[in-house]
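Handout for the seminar on molecular recognition.
Each group receives one record of this type.
Step one: identify the two inputs.
Step two: read the structure output and locate the region that could contact adenosine-5'-diphosphate.
Step three: write two sentences on what you found, then compare them with the reference statements printed after the record.
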Amino acid sequence: MSQLEELLAVWLPRQRWFSGKGIPIRQIRVESRHTLVSAGPEGPDLHVLVIQAGQRGLSSRYQLLLGSRPPRSLPPDLARVAIGVCQVSGGRPKVIYDAAHDAQLTGLLLERFTAPTGAEPSGRVRFRTLPGGRIRVGSTGRILTGEQSNTSLVYGEDYVLKTFRRLWPGTNPDLELNMALSGSPYVARPCGWIEADLAGHSTPTTLAMLQTYIPQATDGWVLATADVRALLEGSGSGHEPGFTGEAAQLGRTTAEVHRSLARALPTDVLTPAGAAEMADAMVERLAMASAEVPELAEHAPRVMEAYADFSEVDEPLPIQRIHGDYHLGQVIRTTPGWVVLDFEGEPTVPVRDRQRLSSPLRDVAGMLRSFDYAAGYLLVGHPGEAGLEWAARSWARHNREAFCRGYADGGGADPEKHLTVLRAFEFDKAVYEVLYEARNRPNWLRVPLESIATAAAAPPVPG
Ligand SMILES: Nc1ncnc2c1ncn2[C@@H]1O[C@H](COP(=O)(O)OP(=O)(O)O)[C@@H](O)[C@H]1O
Ligand SMILES: [Mg+2]
Protein backbone atom coordinates (compact mmCIF):
# COMPACT_ATOMS: atom_id res chain seq x y z
CA MET A 1 0.00 0.00 0.00
CA SER A 2 1.14 3.57 -0.65
CA GLN A 3 1.73 5.96 2.23
CA LEU A 4 -1.69 7.50 1.63
CA GLU A 5 -3.36 4.08 1.65
CA GLU A 6 -1.58 3.16 4.90
CA LEU A 7 -2.88 6.34 6.53
CA LEU A 8 -6.41 5.67 5.30
CA ALA A 9 -6.32 2.10 6.64
CA VAL A 10 -5.94 3.55 10.15
CA TRP A 11 -8.39 6.41 9.70
CA LEU A 12 -11.24 4.60 7.94
CA PRO A 13 -12.41 2.24 10.74
CA ARG A 14 -12.88 5.25 13.04
CA GLN A 15 -15.42 6.91 10.77
CA ARG A 16 -19.03 6.56 11.88
CA TRP A 17 -20.18 5.85 8.31
CA PHE A 18 -17.72 2.99 7.81
CA SER A 19 -19.94 -0.08 7.59
CA GLY A 20 -17.27 -2.75 8.11
CA LYS A 21 -16.51 -2.01 11.78
CA GLY A 22 -14.92 -4.73 13.86
CA ILE A 23 -13.34 -6.58 10.93
CA PRO A 24 -9.64 -5.86 10.28
CA ILE A 25 -8.83 -3.98 7.08
CA ARG A 26 -6.35 -6.00 5.06
CA GLN A 27 -5.96 -3.61 2.20
CA ILE A 28 -6.87 -0.15 0.96
CA ARG A 29 -6.61 0.60 -2.71
CA VAL A 30 -7.21 4.03 -4.19
CA GLU A 31 -9.26 3.26 -7.28
CA SER A 32 -9.55 6.82 -8.55
CA ARG A 33 -8.68 10.29 -7.39
CA HIS A 34 -9.84 13.65 -8.75
CA THR A 35 -8.98 17.15 -7.63
CA LEU A 36 -12.26 19.05 -7.62
CA VAL A 37 -11.06 22.35 -6.22
CA SER A 38 -7.62 23.91 -6.15
CA ALA A 39 -7.24 27.21 -4.32
CA GLY A 40 -3.62 28.00 -5.29
CA PRO A 41 -0.18 26.82 -4.10
CA GLU A 42 -0.72 27.62 -0.42
CA GLY A 43 -4.47 27.25 -0.44
CA PRO A 44 -6.38 24.05 0.16
CA ASP A 45 -7.17 21.47 -2.50
CA LEU A 46 -10.22 19.25 -2.45
CA HIS A 47 -9.88 15.69 -3.70
CA VAL A 48 -12.52 13.06 -4.17
CA LEU A 49 -11.17 9.56 -3.78
CA VAL A 50 -12.89 6.31 -4.59
CA ILE A 51 -11.26 3.59 -2.56
CA GLN A 52 -11.64 -0.14 -2.14
CA ALA A 53 -11.38 -1.43 1.41
CA GLY A 54 -10.48 -5.13 1.56
CA GLN A 55 -11.73 -7.09 4.57
CA ARG A 56 -11.88 -10.86 4.92
CA GLY A 57 -11.54 -11.37 1.19
CA LEU A 58 -14.42 -8.96 0.44
CA SER A 59 -13.91 -5.55 -1.01
CA SER A 60 -16.18 -2.52 -0.44
CA ARG A 61 -16.08 0.78 -2.24
CA TYR A 62 -16.18 4.08 -0.36
CA GLN A 63 -16.04 7.74 -1.29
CA LEU A 64 -13.70 10.09 0.59
CA LEU A 65 -13.54 13.86 0.38
CA LEU A 66 -10.07 14.89 1.43
CA GLY A 67 -8.55 18.32 1.83
CA SER A 68 -4.84 18.91 1.46
CA ARG A 69 -2.66 21.85 2.48
CA PRO A 70 1.04 22.50 3.05
CA PRO A 71 1.59 21.31 6.66
CA ARG A 72 2.36 24.74 8.06
CA SER A 73 -0.79 26.33 6.66
CA LEU A 74 -3.28 24.00 8.34
CA PRO A 75 -5.59 26.12 10.52
CA PRO A 76 -5.72 24.91 14.14
CA ASP A 77 -9.42 24.00 13.93
CA LEU A 78 -8.65 21.53 11.14
CA ALA A 79 -5.81 19.87 13.07
CA ARG A 80 -8.32 17.64 14.87
CA VAL A 81 -9.51 16.18 11.54
CA ALA A 82 -6.01 15.70 10.12
CA ILE A 83 -5.27 12.23 8.76
CA GLY A 84 -1.51 12.54 8.20
CA VAL A 85 1.19 13.93 5.95
CA CYS A 86 1.88 12.35 2.57
CA GLN A 87 2.08 13.00 -1.15
CA VAL A 88 -1.41 13.34 -2.55
CA SER A 89 -0.96 13.84 -6.27
CA GLY A 90 2.80 14.11 -6.72
CA GLY A 91 4.83 17.11 -5.58
CA ARG A 92 5.58 18.10 -2.00
CA PRO A 93 4.06 16.17 0.89
CA LYS A 94 0.93 17.78 2.27
CA VAL A 95 -1.25 17.28 5.27
CA ILE A 96 -4.47 15.55 4.34
CA TYR A 97 -7.65 15.90 6.37
CA ASP A 98 -11.40 15.39 6.28
CA ALA A 99 -12.55 18.11 3.87
CA ALA A 100 -16.14 18.17 5.13
CA HIS A 101 -14.89 20.27 8.09
CA ASP A 102 -13.19 22.89 5.93
CA ALA A 103 -15.62 25.79 5.35
CA GLN A 104 -13.51 27.23 2.54
CA LEU A 105 -13.53 23.93 0.64
CA THR A 106 -17.19 23.17 1.18
CA GLY A 107 -18.06 26.66 -0.12
CA LEU A 108 -15.92 26.09 -3.22
CA LEU A 109 -17.48 22.66 -3.69
CA LEU A 110 -20.94 24.21 -3.92
CA GLU A 111 -19.62 26.73 -6.44
CA ARG A 112 -18.56 23.86 -8.67
CA PHE A 113 -22.25 23.30 -9.45
CA THR A 114 -22.26 26.64 -11.26
CA ALA A 115 -18.99 26.11 -13.18
CA PRO A 116 -19.26 25.09 -16.83
CA THR A 117 -19.70 21.34 -17.20
CA GLY A 118 -16.48 19.45 -17.61
CA ALA A 119 -14.39 21.93 -15.61
CA GLU A 120 -12.72 18.98 -13.89
CA PRO A 121 -9.78 18.27 -16.21
CA SER A 122 -10.44 14.55 -16.76
CA GLY A 123 -14.20 15.14 -17.17
CA ARG A 124 -14.78 11.97 -15.21
CA VAL A 125 -16.50 13.79 -12.33
CA ARG A 126 -19.48 15.86 -13.37
CA PHE A 127 -21.65 18.35 -11.48
CA ARG A 128 -25.23 18.24 -12.75
CA THR A 129 -28.08 20.62 -12.11
CA LEU A 130 -31.69 20.41 -13.19
CA PRO A 131 -32.71 22.57 -16.15
CA GLY A 132 -33.81 26.02 -15.03
CA GLY A 133 -32.51 25.49 -11.49
CA ARG A 134 -29.95 28.13 -10.55
CA ILE A 135 -27.78 27.20 -7.59
CA ARG A 136 -27.31 29.94 -5.00
CA VAL A 137 -23.66 29.97 -3.94
CA GLY A 138 -21.84 31.97 -1.28
CA SER A 139 -22.60 29.78 1.74
CA THR A 140 -20.38 27.19 3.37
CA GLY A 141 -21.32 23.66 4.38
CA ARG A 142 -22.02 22.68 7.96
CA ILE A 143 -21.86 18.96 8.77
CA LEU A 144 -25.11 17.42 9.93
CA THR A 145 -24.63 15.40 13.08
CA GLY A 146 -26.70 12.49 14.33
CA GLU A 147 -27.31 8.93 13.23
CA GLN A 148 -26.30 8.80 9.59
CA SER A 149 -24.80 6.35 7.17
CA ASN A 150 -23.56 9.11 4.87
CA THR A 151 -22.16 12.61 5.30
CA SER A 152 -24.51 15.53 4.69
CA LEU A 153 -23.53 19.19 4.51
CA VAL A 154 -26.10 21.93 5.07
CA TYR A 155 -25.61 25.18 3.18
CA GLY A 156 -27.31 28.05 5.02
CA GLU A 157 -31.03 27.39 4.75
CA ASP A 158 -30.71 26.52 1.06
CA TYR A 159 -29.37 23.04 0.44
CA VAL A 160 -28.26 19.74 1.81
CA LEU A 161 -25.43 18.08 -0.07
CA LYS A 162 -25.47 14.41 0.80
CA THR A 163 -22.26 12.62 -0.09
CA PHE A 164 -22.77 8.90 -0.39
CA ARG A 165 -20.11 6.99 1.48
CA ARG A 166 -20.61 3.39 0.39
CA LEU A 167 -20.55 3.41 -3.40
CA TRP A 168 -22.11 0.93 -5.78
CA PRO A 169 -21.94 1.40 -9.54
CA GLY A 170 -24.91 3.24 -11.05
CA THR A 171 -27.46 5.83 -9.99
CA ASN A 172 -28.06 5.92 -6.25
CA PRO A 173 -31.74 5.09 -5.51
CA ASP A 174 -31.93 8.19 -3.28
CA LEU A 175 -31.38 10.36 -6.36
CA GLU A 176 -33.45 8.14 -8.64
CA LEU A 177 -36.51 8.08 -6.38
CA ASN A 178 -36.29 11.73 -5.33
CA MET A 179 -36.15 12.67 -9.02
CA ALA A 180 -39.18 10.50 -9.72
CA LEU A 181 -41.02 12.22 -6.84
CA SER A 182 -39.84 15.72 -7.73
CA GLY A 183 -42.73 18.15 -7.30
CA SER A 184 -44.31 16.12 -4.52
CA PRO A 185 -44.92 18.13 -1.33
CA TYR A 186 -43.75 15.11 0.67
CA VAL A 187 -40.09 15.09 -0.38
CA ALA A 188 -37.23 17.62 -0.42
CA ARG A 189 -36.79 18.80 -3.99
CA PRO A 190 -33.59 17.59 -5.66
CA CYS A 191 -31.53 20.38 -7.27
CA GLY A 192 -28.50 18.58 -8.63
CA TRP A 193 -25.99 15.81 -8.17
CA ILE A 194 -22.34 14.85 -8.64
CA GLU A 195 -21.53 11.78 -10.68
CA ALA A 196 -18.38 9.96 -11.71
CA ASP A 197 -17.38 7.28 -14.19
CA LEU A 198 -15.95 4.36 -12.26
CA ALA A 199 -13.35 2.24 -13.99
CA GLY A 200 -15.00 -0.63 -15.84
CA HIS A 201 -18.56 0.72 -15.57
CA SER A 202 -20.34 2.36 -18.46
CA THR A 203 -23.11 4.08 -16.48
CA PRO A 204 -22.24 7.00 -14.18
CA THR A 205 -22.17 6.46 -10.42
CA THR A 206 -23.79 9.01 -8.09
CA LEU A 207 -21.33 10.52 -5.64
CA ALA A 208 -23.60 13.13 -4.04
CA MET A 209 -27.08 14.63 -4.21
CA LEU A 210 -27.96 18.30 -3.73
CA GLN A 211 -31.40 18.74 -2.22
CA THR A 212 -33.48 21.63 -0.90
CA TYR A 213 -32.94 22.07 2.82
CA ILE A 214 -36.09 21.98 4.89
CA PRO A 215 -35.61 24.38 7.78
CA GLN A 216 -37.23 24.12 11.19
CA ALA A 217 -38.22 20.51 10.80
CA THR A 218 -38.27 17.99 13.63
CA ASP A 219 -37.03 14.48 13.23
CA GLY A 220 -39.81 11.88 13.55
CA TRP A 221 -37.82 9.79 16.00
CA VAL A 222 -37.22 12.81 18.26
CA LEU A 223 -40.90 13.73 18.17
CA ALA A 224 -42.07 10.18 18.86
CA THR A 225 -39.64 9.44 21.69
CA ALA A 226 -40.43 12.80 23.33
CA ASP A 227 -44.06 11.72 23.37
CA VAL A 228 -43.21 8.32 24.85
CA ARG A 229 -41.09 10.03 27.50
CA ALA A 230 -43.96 12.38 28.43
CA LEU A 231 -46.28 9.41 28.65
CA LEU A 232 -43.94 7.36 30.83
CA GLU A 233 -43.17 10.26 33.12
CA GLY A 234 -46.88 10.92 33.55
CA SER A 235 -47.63 7.18 33.66
CA GLY A 236 -50.68 6.44 35.78
CA SER A 237 -51.88 10.05 35.71
CA GLY A 238 -54.02 9.53 32.63
CA HIS A 239 -51.68 11.30 30.21
CA GLU A 240 -53.13 11.10 26.70
CA PRO A 241 -50.57 10.08 24.08
CA GLY A 242 -50.22 13.01 21.72
CA PHE A 243 -48.47 11.36 18.78
CA THR A 244 -51.38 9.38 17.33
CA GLY A 245 -52.57 12.31 15.19
CA GLU A 246 -49.04 12.58 13.81
CA ALA A 247 -48.89 8.85 13.21
CA ALA A 248 -52.15 8.96 11.25
CA GLN A 249 -50.88 11.84 9.12
CA LEU A 250 -47.60 10.01 8.57
CA GLY A 251 -49.61 7.00 7.38
CA ARG A 252 -51.45 9.18 4.84
CA THR A 253 -48.19 10.76 3.65
CA THR A 254 -46.60 7.34 3.27
CA ALA A 255 -49.52 6.15 1.14
CA GLU A 256 -49.28 9.30 -1.02
CA VAL A 257 -45.56 8.74 -1.55
CA HIS A 258 -46.14 5.09 -2.46
CA ARG A 259 -48.84 6.07 -4.93
CA SER A 260 -46.55 8.65 -6.55
CA LEU A 261 -43.76 6.08 -6.84
CA ALA A 262 -46.16 3.61 -8.42
CA ARG A 263 -47.26 6.24 -10.96
CA ALA A 264 -43.73 7.32 -11.86
CA LEU A 265 -41.87 4.00 -11.90
CA PRO A 266 -42.55 0.38 -12.91
CA THR A 267 -45.05 -1.75 -11.01
CA ASP A 268 -45.94 -5.43 -11.18
CA VAL A 269 -47.66 -8.21 -9.29
CA LEU A 270 -45.64 -10.68 -7.26
CA THR A 271 -45.63 -14.11 -8.91
CA PRO A 272 -45.90 -17.25 -6.75
CA ALA A 273 -42.24 -17.91 -7.58
CA GLY A 274 -41.38 -14.37 -6.46
CA ALA A 275 -43.26 -14.89 -3.19
CA ALA A 276 -41.45 -18.17 -2.59
CA GLU A 277 -38.13 -16.47 -3.23
CA MET A 278 -38.98 -13.71 -0.75
CA ALA A 279 -40.03 -16.28 1.86
CA ASP A 280 -36.79 -18.23 1.29
CA ALA A 281 -34.75 -15.09 1.95
CA MET A 282 -36.68 -14.54 5.20
CA VAL A 283 -36.14 -18.15 6.29
CA GLU A 284 -32.44 -17.83 5.56
CA ARG A 285 -32.14 -14.68 7.64
CA LEU A 286 -34.02 -16.34 10.50
CA ALA A 287 -31.66 -19.32 10.41
CA MET A 288 -28.63 -17.08 10.51
CA ALA A 289 -29.99 -14.97 13.37
CA SER A 290 -31.12 -18.01 15.40
CA ALA A 291 -27.64 -19.49 15.11
CA GLU A 292 -26.15 -16.29 16.47
CA VAL A 293 -28.79 -15.43 19.09
CA PRO A 294 -30.04 -18.52 20.95
CA GLU A 295 -33.00 -16.64 22.57
CA LEU A 296 -34.45 -16.22 19.09
CA ALA A 297 -34.40 -19.93 18.35
CA GLU A 298 -37.30 -20.74 20.72
CA HIS A 299 -39.62 -18.48 18.68
CA ALA A 300 -38.33 -19.65 15.32
CA PRO A 301 -41.04 -22.29 14.70
CA ARG A 302 -43.83 -19.69 15.00
CA VAL A 303 -41.93 -17.26 12.82
CA MET A 304 -41.43 -20.02 10.24
CA GLU A 305 -45.18 -20.61 10.24
CA ALA A 306 -45.73 -16.93 9.47
CA TYR A 307 -43.32 -17.19 6.53
CA ALA A 308 -45.07 -20.32 5.26
CA ASP A 309 -48.44 -18.53 5.50
CA PHE A 310 -46.92 -15.65 3.54
CA SER A 311 -45.71 -17.88 0.73
CA GLU A 312 -49.20 -19.40 0.46
CA VAL A 313 -51.12 -16.12 0.24
CA ASP A 314 -53.21 -16.47 -2.90
CA GLU A 315 -54.28 -12.86 -3.39
CA PRO A 316 -52.09 -11.02 -5.94
CA LEU A 317 -49.57 -8.83 -4.17
CA PRO A 318 -48.79 -5.56 -6.01
CA ILE A 319 -45.10 -4.68 -6.09
CA GLN A 320 -43.33 -1.43 -6.94
CA ARG A 321 -40.32 0.70 -5.99
CA ILE A 322 -40.38 1.37 -2.26
CA HIS A 323 -38.40 3.39 0.28
CA GLY A 324 -36.55 0.33 1.52
CA ASP A 325 -35.28 1.58 4.88
CA TYR A 326 -38.35 3.21 6.35
CA HIS A 327 -38.41 4.28 9.98
CA LEU A 328 -39.06 7.32 12.18
CA GLY A 329 -35.51 8.63 11.63
CA GLN A 330 -36.20 8.97 7.90
CA VAL A 331 -39.13 11.38 8.18
CA ILE A 332 -39.21 14.97 9.36
CA ARG A 333 -42.19 17.01 10.53
CA THR A 334 -42.52 20.47 9.04
CA THR A 335 -45.32 22.96 9.66
CA PRO A 336 -47.47 21.77 6.75
CA GLY A 337 -46.80 18.07 7.30
CA TRP A 338 -44.41 15.16 7.03
CA VAL A 339 -41.51 14.97 4.56
CA VAL A 340 -39.87 11.66 3.66
CA LEU A 341 -36.07 11.56 3.28
CA ASP A 342 -33.38 9.08 2.37
CA PHE A 343 -34.70 6.79 -0.36
CA GLU A 344 -31.32 5.12 -0.57
CA GLY A 345 -32.51 1.83 0.92
CA GLU A 346 -30.00 -0.28 2.83
CA PRO A 347 -26.57 1.11 1.78
CA THR A 348 -24.74 -2.18 2.34
CA VAL A 349 -26.93 -3.98 -0.22
CA PRO A 350 -25.89 -3.74 -3.91
CA VAL A 351 -27.89 -1.12 -5.82
CA ARG A 352 -29.28 -3.64 -8.32
CA ASP A 353 -30.90 -5.56 -5.46
CA ARG A 354 -32.33 -2.39 -3.95
CA GLN A 355 -33.89 -1.52 -7.31
CA ARG A 356 -36.01 -4.66 -7.27
CA LEU A 357 -39.74 -4.13 -6.92
CA SER A 358 -41.21 -5.01 -3.57
CA SER A 359 -44.43 -4.70 -1.64
CA PRO A 360 -45.06 -1.25 -0.16
CA LEU A 361 -46.22 -3.15 2.93
CA ARG A 362 -42.50 -3.68 3.60
CA ASP A 363 -42.21 0.04 4.29
CA VAL A 364 -45.35 -0.09 6.41
CA ALA A 365 -43.80 -2.92 8.43
CA GLY A 366 -40.59 -0.87 8.78
CA MET A 367 -42.48 2.04 10.29
CA LEU A 368 -44.52 -0.21 12.59
CA ARG A 369 -41.28 -1.71 13.90
CA SER A 370 -40.03 1.83 14.46
CA PHE A 371 -43.03 2.56 16.73
CA ASP A 372 -42.01 -0.48 18.78
CA TYR A 373 -38.48 0.86 18.96
CA ALA A 374 -39.60 4.33 20.03
CA ALA A 375 -41.67 2.70 22.78
CA GLY A 376 -38.95 0.25 23.81
CA TYR A 377 -36.05 2.70 23.65
CA LEU A 378 -36.77 4.41 26.97
CA LEU A 379 -37.20 1.07 28.70
CA VAL A 380 -33.71 -0.12 27.81
CA GLY A 381 -32.44 1.19 31.15
CA HIS A 382 -35.51 0.06 33.15
CA PRO A 383 -36.00 -3.66 32.61
CA GLY A 384 -38.83 -5.33 34.43
CA GLU A 385 -40.91 -2.27 35.31
CA ALA A 386 -44.27 -3.71 34.42
CA GLY A 387 -46.26 -0.45 34.60
CA LEU A 388 -43.89 1.34 32.27
CA GLU A 389 -43.80 -1.60 29.90
CA TRP A 390 -47.54 -1.72 29.70
CA ALA A 391 -47.73 2.02 29.00
CA ALA A 392 -45.01 1.83 26.33
CA ARG A 393 -46.67 -1.13 24.65
CA SER A 394 -50.03 0.56 24.51
CA TRP A 395 -48.33 3.66 23.03
CA ALA A 396 -46.90 1.50 20.24
CA ARG A 397 -50.27 -0.19 19.67
CA HIS A 398 -52.21 3.09 19.44
CA ASN A 399 -49.71 4.57 17.06
CA ARG A 400 -49.51 1.56 14.81
CA GLU A 401 -53.29 1.52 14.56
CA ALA A 402 -53.34 5.24 13.77
CA PHE A 403 -50.59 4.86 11.14
CA CYS A 404 -52.38 1.94 9.45
CA ARG A 405 -55.68 3.82 9.43
CA GLY A 406 -53.96 6.86 7.91
CA TYR A 407 -52.24 4.65 5.34
CA ALA A 408 -55.53 3.14 4.21
CA ASP A 409 -57.23 6.59 4.22
CA GLY A 410 -54.40 7.92 2.05
CA GLY A 411 -55.16 5.31 -0.62
CA GLY A 412 -52.65 2.63 0.36
CA ALA A 413 -53.51 -1.07 0.64
CA ASP A 414 -55.32 -1.39 3.99
CA PRO A 415 -52.73 -3.04 6.27
CA GLU A 416 -55.58 -4.55 8.34
CA LYS A 417 -56.62 -6.54 5.27
CA HIS A 418 -53.12 -7.86 4.59
CA LEU A 419 -52.18 -9.07 8.03
CA THR A 420 -50.48 -12.27 6.83
CA VAL A 421 -48.14 -10.30 4.59
CA LEU A 422 -47.56 -7.64 7.22
CA ARG A 423 -46.86 -10.19 9.94
CA ALA A 424 -44.18 -11.86 7.82
CA PHE A 425 -42.55 -8.54 6.92
CA GLU A 426 -42.59 -7.38 10.55
CA PHE A 427 -41.00 -10.62 11.71
CA ASP A 428 -38.38 -10.36 8.99
CA LYS A 429 -37.53 -6.80 9.98
CA ALA A 430 -37.38 -7.73 13.67
CA VAL A 431 -35.09 -10.68 12.88
CA TYR A 432 -32.82 -8.29 11.00
CA GLU A 433 -32.84 -6.02 14.06
CA VAL A 434 -31.96 -8.95 16.35
CA LEU A 435 -28.85 -9.58 14.26
CA TYR A 436 -27.97 -5.91 14.17
CA GLU A 437 -28.40 -5.37 17.91
CA ALA A 438 -26.57 -8.57 18.85
CA ARG A 439 -23.59 -7.35 16.84
CA ASN A 440 -23.70 -3.64 17.63
CA ARG A 441 -25.80 -2.74 20.71
CA PRO A 442 -26.37 -5.80 22.88
CA ASN A 443 -28.36 -3.92 25.52
CA TRP A 444 -30.97 -3.06 22.89
CA LEU A 445 -31.40 -6.68 21.89
CA ARG A 446 -34.44 -7.05 24.10
CA VAL A 447 -36.41 -4.52 22.01
CA PRO A 448 -36.75 -6.71 18.88
CA LEU A 449 -36.64 -9.96 20.88
CA GLU A 450 -39.61 -8.94 23.01
CA SER A 451 -41.54 -7.84 19.94
CA ILE A 452 -40.91 -11.23 18.36
CA ALA A 453 -41.91 -13.05 21.55
CA THR A 454 -45.16 -11.08 21.82
CA ALA A 455 -46.07 -11.47 18.16
CA ALA A 456 -45.13 -15.17 18.16
CA ALA A 457 -47.41 -15.76 21.14
CA ALA A 458 -50.34 -14.07 19.37
CA PRO A 459 -52.54 -16.36 17.30
CA PRO A 460 -51.71 -16.41 13.60
CA VAL A 461 -53.84 -14.30 11.33
CA PRO A 462 -57.17 -15.98 10.56
CA GLY A 463 -57.98 -16.96 7.02
N1 LIG B 1 -33.43 18.13 2.88
C1 LIG B 1 -33.31 18.11 4.20
N2 LIG B 1 -33.82 19.09 4.97
C2 LIG B 1 -33.66 19.07 6.32
N3 LIG B 1 -33.02 18.11 6.98
C3 LIG B 1 -32.49 17.10 6.28
C4 LIG B 1 -32.60 17.05 4.85
N4 LIG B 1 -31.98 15.94 4.42
C5 LIG B 1 -31.50 15.33 5.51
N5 LIG B 1 -31.80 16.00 6.64
C6 LIG B 1 -31.45 15.62 8.02
O1 LIG B 1 -30.30 14.78 7.96
C7 LIG B 1 -30.57 13.48 8.47
C8 LIG B 1 -29.84 12.43 7.65
O2 LIG B 1 -30.28 12.46 6.32
P1 LIG B 1 -30.47 11.12 5.48
O3 LIG B 1 -30.83 11.49 4.09
O4 LIG B 1 -31.38 10.20 6.22
O5 LIG B 1 -28.97 10.58 5.47
P2 LIG B 1 -28.34 9.16 5.84
O6 LIG B 1 -28.40 8.34 4.59
O7 LIG B 1 -26.94 9.49 6.21
O8 LIG B 1 -29.15 8.55 6.93
C9 LIG B 1 -32.08 13.36 8.42
O9 LIG B 1 -32.57 12.47 9.39
C10 LIG B 1 -32.53 14.77 8.67
O10 LIG B 1 -32.56 15.06 10.05
MG1 LIG C 1 -31.22 8.24 6.97
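Reference statements: The chain has a mean pLDDT of 92. The CA atoms of residues 171 and 206 lie 5 Å apart.
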